[in-house]
Amino acid sequence: MSEGLDAKALWSISYGLYVVSSRSGEGRLNGQIANSVFQVTSEPPQVAAAINKGNLTHEYIEESGVFAVSVLSQDVTMKFIGLFGFRSGREVDKLSQARYMPGATGVPVVLDYSVSFIEAEVVGSLDVGTHTIFVGRVVAGRVIGGGRPLTYAEYHELKKGKAPKAAPTYRG
Amino acid sequence: MSEGLDAKALWSISYGLYVVSSRSGEGRLNGQIANSVFQVTSEPPQVAAAINKGNLTHEYIEESGVFAVSVLSQDVTMKFIGLFGFRSGREVDKLSQARYMPGATGVPVVLDYSVSFIEAEVVGSLDVGTHTIFVGRVVAGRVIGGGRPLTYAEYHELKKGKAPKAAPTYRG
Fold first, then answer.
1. Three-state SS across A8-27?
2. Residue A77: strand, helix, or coil
3. Is A31 among the domain residues?
4. Within a domain: A17
5. Looking at beta carbons, which residues of chain A come within 8 Å of B167?
6. I need a surface site. Which of A172, B42, B62, B73 has the fewest CB within 10 A?
7. Which chain A residues are closer than 8 Å to B48 by Cβ?
8. A116 closest CB neighbour out of B9, B115, B126
């Protein structure tokens, strides 16, 4: 880390909290918590997500070229975040413990604690070291229920949540 | 836009509000409001920003390969956002109307209404159509003052703010 950098400067960047989900080439399903999701263009609508290369969801997005983003609401439970954010899909079948629907692209769209969802087809990606930024053209999306999106700051403050080691915002 | 897409689904993605600033090859200075800024890796710390290709700041970042991000606080004024977000640096010398300091990389680090700043050197970029995603390795950064980061939702709700046409999140 650079000597001129106080890491706290990075902590004031704002995010939401999301489940990014995908499927393997053979149709296996997985999803993970992510905070680094944002819209990058409006015409056409495209979104970007930074995903850790070691994660199963990364493998699945590379295989299938599609992913979904569920925007988590303020009523999300730590149990849910524990399952999707701190367990690996290589060890536990996360989707068997969640409510989801098959999306237009065949990805599992997670519905639990979700304000809305977005489905995207990968049109570009950028290798940034430990993570890949996947850029997807939005092919579907809908507001699901009520509730307000949980911000990452609220997750830290209200839920006393932490970032796992694989997160772009991990505080070592 | 896809028929399966309700654009409101995209509106629940969370952002902050930032000034992204840079300098030209000849040392001219500019900055603009951006919401699409996020950290993409922690080791090493890297940030990404989606910048409209038509903007002067885009030209400057391409020329100099460096940019700064100032995280705007909740007390930012609509006058300030009007200057940096809705005027072009081709028509007005924005920095002459703001408080800033020269950063380690020579970029102007805007201090007005800023919770913290981050300075970065471009290490990669991705063409996503109307915008470019610039990825920068963070070389400096500090918490400047007090205040809480303004979220994009608060900007819309509290400040009744709109997105300009060049924004990734423009609502046509």
1. HHHHHCCCECEEEEEECCCC
2. coil
3. yes
4. no
5. 42
6. A172
7. 48, 50, 128, 133
8. B9
Whether residue B28 has pLDDT greater than 90: yes
What is the pLDDT averaged over residues A72-99?
Answer: 96
- Is A15 a domain residue? no
Which amino acid would we find at residue A136? G
Asked if B126 lies within 8 A of A135 by C-beta distance, the reply is yes
Q: Please provide the distance, in angstroms rounded to a whole number, between the alpha carbons at the two ends of chain B.
A: 11
Q: Does a structural domain hold residue A165?
A: no
Structure tokens at A22: 């995908």
How many domains does chain B fold into? 1
Q: One-letter amino acid identity for A76? A: V
Cis bond before residue A44 (omega within 30° of 0):
yes
Instruction: Tell me how close the Cα of B101 comes to any Cα of chain A, in angstroms.
Output: 15
Helix (H) or strand (E) holding B83: helix B78-86
Digit-coded pLDDT (tens) for B44-61 = 999 999 999 999 999 999
Quickly tell me which residue has 């400067």 as its tokens.
A9
Q: What is the CATH number of the domain that holds A99?
A: 2.30.110.10
Asked if A167's CB is within 8 angstroms of B141's CB, the reply is no
Place of tokens 């995010």: A15
What are the beta bridge partners of residue B22? B30
d(CA B46, CA A38): 16
Rounded to 5 degrees, φ, ψ at B122 are: -65, 125
Please give the residue range of the domain that contains residue A41. Answer: 23-157
pLDDT tens for residues A34-76?
A: 999 999 999 999 999 999 999 999 999 999 999 999 999 999 9
pTM of the prediction? 0.95
pLDDT confidence tier of residue B169, bands split at 50, 70 and 90? confident
Kindly provide the ipTM of the predicted complex, given to two decimals. 0.94
At B132-165, the pLDDT tens digits run 999 999 999 999 987 899 999 999 887 787 888 8
